[in-house]
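Hi team,

As requested, here is the filled-out complex form for the fe (ii) ion run. I kept the field names the same as last time so the parser does not choke. Let me know if anything looks off before we queue the next batch.

— J.
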Amino acid sequence: MSNEIRLAACLTAILLVATSIVMTSSEIFTSSLKVERMIMEEEKLLQEFKRYIDYQYDRLKMFSNFYADRLRDVRMRANPEIVNDLQHPNAVYNVIKRFASDYANVLGENYESFRQVVQSSFGQFLADVNDVRGARLSLLRLQSVYNMKALDMARGDYLGFQGPPLAPLDAFEIGQTAFTEGKLNLSIDWLNASLALFASTELQHLVNPVYRPTDGGIKALMGRAYLFNGQVHEAEALYDEAKLLDPNHGDVGELERELRSQPRLQSIPHVDYFQNFSRLCSLENRHYPAEPNNPKIVCRYREAVLPYYRFKEEILSLAPFASVIYNVVSDQESDHLKNFVKNRLERGKVGGDNSTVSEIRTSDLAWIWDNESQLARSMAKRIECITGLDTSQRLPDGPSSGEAFQVVNYGLGGHYEVHMDPFDEPPKQAELKDSGERIATFLIYLSDVQRGGSTVFTRAGISVAPMKNMALMWYNYDPAHQRDDLTHHAGCPVLIGQKWICNKWIWTYGNTFRRRCGLTPGATQLEIEPDMKRGYL
Ligand SMILES: O=C(O)CCC(=O)C(=O)O
Ligand SMILES: [Fe+2]
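And here is what came back:
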């Protein structure tokens, strides 16, 4: 077939591709970097508190000692040794909680005005109630993906990784959040855990009687969770218990009224993909798909720039083509990239015009164009050599073959739900105009992740655990240039640790002849590769 005919076939295929990305759920997030900053700024915050109390309002000055004592209390509860180890979700949760509500509780009604005073110096890094809610949702996500028990989590035991405990009130509040989110089984689990924790003698120092819900109140809420879950008998039993413990709760008449009048909350169904998602996320290792997808060639070397500068590649799957390539950047380069973006990280956005604050992606991210950094230029060159694809950026007006590097920082339970990388609609960014489509994704892990945070392909059954400096590369279009549904993938929630990645998306523009169409409908990447301009051994 002549090149012209192949090109025409490719272009037709591009036009025929239909796209659909489902966006669900909604959450706030706090990246690991923000939490680190809050801790670094904590002393400054305390000083501001003191100044505020001592000098700004006579009314407060009278109570200066009282406030100072209570602030010290909050600070003391934050055992610095544990709190500064931000690898563990409970430690992160406690920091967010301390900033967003413990300090706020000390100042009570004066907190809002104080907040405005310090806003300029803390800006977005001062967590608020939305972040606490986001943190609770993150813990709930970790719980359902990694199948953990609320009581273990509350005691700091995450699949054997030990961290600080949560206060009994937090367990209760997580149960409340789960309830309002319709995650009824999780809600029951957390409310049960909170009863055990409030009763535990070791945790009494974490209980503030002012905010302690009664056991009757907790059981009544559990009863409602059962009720909405359709478990009427369990609900009735709990209402009875609640009524005995606390006459304000547990009225069976109330139960009946609810049965008649309330629309039933449905438990979130476990869709099939979720089962697969959860299983793949828990594998936490490079996982080769079962035959017949499993290729014969699993390891080869790619040359880049100089013949002795080689990269070891392991092919994970032929269709879709996906491989990992080791040490594509050095430790110093990884760290340099993270430092470079520290001051420009923003809440993740998705969509063709990059304008929608992401509700399916909980992370902070930043972009680096090749012309902004020598390192970005050199990495782009390396990726060209490894993939044989063009990544040139023709700024300001020309269509680009490669997107800017996208550096991403995932914090507490940070994740990216199942999606495909090609856009639904052509992007509106001037730089990407007429660039075609994201044919390939080149994802570099800039950190190890202690536990969780794998990249999983839910339909192809591939699971890749992050390894610092390693790249994961795949084609979003098959050799017939059809968008490949098997490339549906997700970033699993980070369980322990922090996760940094850096993406380079490679576009059709400039690559039509570099990555040619296959001659047969079932042609695999390896069959079309001899056409490609690059070396591998
Ligand atoms: O974080 C991951 O492992 C996946 C990220 C991803 O899919 C993306 O950035 O498009
Ligand atoms: Fe992706």
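Two things worth flagging: The chain is about 40% helix and 15% strand. The first strand starts at residue 157 and ends at 158.

Thanks,
J.
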